[in-house]
Write a structure and sequence with these properties.
- This protein is an alpha+beta fold.
- It folds into two domains: about 240 residues, no CATH class; about 150 residues, no CATH class.
- The protein is about 45% helix and about 10% strand.
- The protein has 18 helices and eight strands.
- Strands 3, 4, 5, 6, 7 and 8 form a six-stranded mixed beta sheet that branches.
- It is elongated.
- Belongs to the peptidase S54 family.
- It is a multi-pass membrane protein.
- Its main location: endoplasmic reticulum.
Length: about 475
């Protein structure tokens, strides 16, 4: 018998959504079996469901307001370019004289604020979340631990006398390399502690924190400014500086920003730096710019609002937030020095729900292939955007999978058969265990992904010259110029 009353259909579906028992399940199946494709389609059903007054889209509306507010409060916009831009700074003092320094201006192709803004705004940056292999390698090569444990007298003042007139606290080996063997090194005397009769050479070479890798460089103030770094005028050497404290903005945790020689490995992440778990939450409402925000809002208003009216804000929030967090985990593992946001993966979770709904309703859709084409065209489009700088395609695909899994667990009108409750409980447990194990594996067990060249080539495809170039300066052994 074909149902002729739309109100009756809505009542049947409402009873099932609010209480998915065996009896309501049977009524729901009976409703689906007797719907005429001429008069009813899955789209019609979802339209009717959207008219049910039980749930209002509180979460969707609040999220859009938060997205737009955060975007509007950002100060300034970076250059809307796809490729990095070389910036030349003239007359920069170094140990070997006055030179021209070339630095890279990092663009934001999504018409948004400078990329470094996202670190202050709470985006996910791997160096603030866990120890990184690259930083361990850098500090091991610098040998700071050995110097601290032996005696700080291994440091001395390295001077380049007139006409260069530059000095900096270094080890003997650093002084020899950085001055090409012509510097004068005095053991056991820090440049800042020189007596007044012996401080004629200007102490201009000091620690600088530049980049998001947490590494420190011994350079001049002008050189540090050219790299958009933080110059530590109160310190003598990099062993006194924790650059991750600058990167992750942890100044509020300590009143004393200066770490004196003799402290235990101050250049490595402290206990507050290793696990800034709150970044996984603070990054969820962030977007990279106006273009990114506009695309995501369009998808959310067309898909997520209707879904929230049907299943409630609490279920939508579970899907969105869980997809966003797991997506952030994957993205920060593949690109540890790029600030990642969670909005793309959260929207991907909603699209994952739409994929499951499509297959659930396949048998009584009027044009299932056309609906599938539109949905997978959207997936392909967002995945293509993920091959550009900042947006992570891995984060989007991960959110898609997590959203599909959670749809099977929390969406009430996704049915499995007679033993609904038992099967749903088992599926919920299995899905929860799978997601937790996957997160643990990504966070602590797979450090090799940090140096995966293939992964990086997928995350950012160089469509033109200069795209996807390494943008953060890394302090390695050798000249600090």
């Amino acid at each position: 018998m074909i149902l002729t009353s739309r109100q009756q259909s809505v009542l049947e579906m409402t009873s099932y959504y609010s209480n998915p028992t065996e009896m309501n399940l049977a009524r729901w199946k009976f409703l689906k079996q007797n719907l005429s494709k001429e008069h009813q389609s899955f789209t019609d059903i979802m339209t009717q469901v959207s008219q049910i007054p039980d749930y209002l889209p509180y979460f969707t509306i609040s999220l859009q307001i938060l997205l737009l507010t955060v975007l509007c409060l950002r100060a300034g916009f970076s250059e809307a370019r796809m490729a990095l831009v070389n910036r030349e700074k003239l007359q920069i003092p170094t140990f070997l004289g006055t030179e021209t320094i070339v630095s890279l201006a990092e663009p934001n192709p999504w018409l948004g604020p400078p990329v470094h803004f996202f670190l202050d705004a709470g985006a996910v940056v791997a160096s603030c979340m866990r120890p990184l292999e690259l930083l361990k390698t850098i500090t091991a090569n610098q040998g700071y631990r050995m110097l601290i444990e032996e005696n700080w007298s291994y440091f001395g003042c390295c001077e380049m006398v007139s006409p260069l007139n530059r000095a900096g606290t270094t080890t003997e080996a650093e002084c020899d390399v950085w001055t090409s063997g012509v510097g004068k090194w005095t053991r056991g005397i820090l440049c800042s502690d020189r007596p007044k009769t012996k401080n004629s050479v200007a102490h201009v070479i000091k620690p600088c924190c530049a980049g998001r890798d947490g590494a420190c460089r011994m350079i001049s103030h002008e050189h540090c400014n050219a790299l958009d770094g933080v110059f530590h005028t109160e310190c003598d050497h990099c062993v006194q500086v924790n650059c991750l404290k600058e990167v992750c903005k942890l100044t509020s945790f300590s009143k004393d920003d200066v770490i004196h020689l003799g402290d235990d490995v101050p250049w490595l992440p402290g206990h507050n730096t290793k696990w800034q778990w709150w970044r996984y939450l603070s990054a969820i409402p962030l977007t990279y710019g106006i273009i990114d925000c506009g695309i995501l809002i369009s998808i959310e208003l067309s898909m997520m609002m209707q879904l929230e009216k049907a299943i409630g804000w609490h279920r939508v929030m579970i899907i969105y937030v869980s997809s966003a967090i797991v997506g952030e985990l994957v993205a920060s593992r593949l690109e540890p020095y790029v600030p990642h946001v969670g909005s793309t993966a959260g929207v991907a979770g909603i699209i994952g729900v739409a994929v499951i709904e499509l297959f659930q309703a396949w048998s009584f859709l009027q044009h299932p292939l056309w609906e599938a084409f539109k949905l997978f065209a959207l997936i392909f489009f967002v995945s293509f955007l993920g091959t550009f700088y900042l947006i992570s395609v891995a984060s989007f695909l991960t959110g898609l999978v997590v959203g599909a899994i959670l749809c099977l667990v929390v969406v009430p009108y996704i049915t499995y058969g007679r033993r609904l409750g038992y099967f749903r409980a088992r599926l919920a447990l299995a899905g929860f265990i799978l997601i937790v194990l996957g997160c643990a594996l990504l966070q602590w067990v797979l450090p090799l992904l940090e140096t995966c060249d293939l992964c990086l080539s997928i995350e950012c495809v160089a469509y033109s010259e200069g795209m996807c170039t390494s943008y953060y300066p890394i302090a390695r052994e050798g000249t600090p110029r």
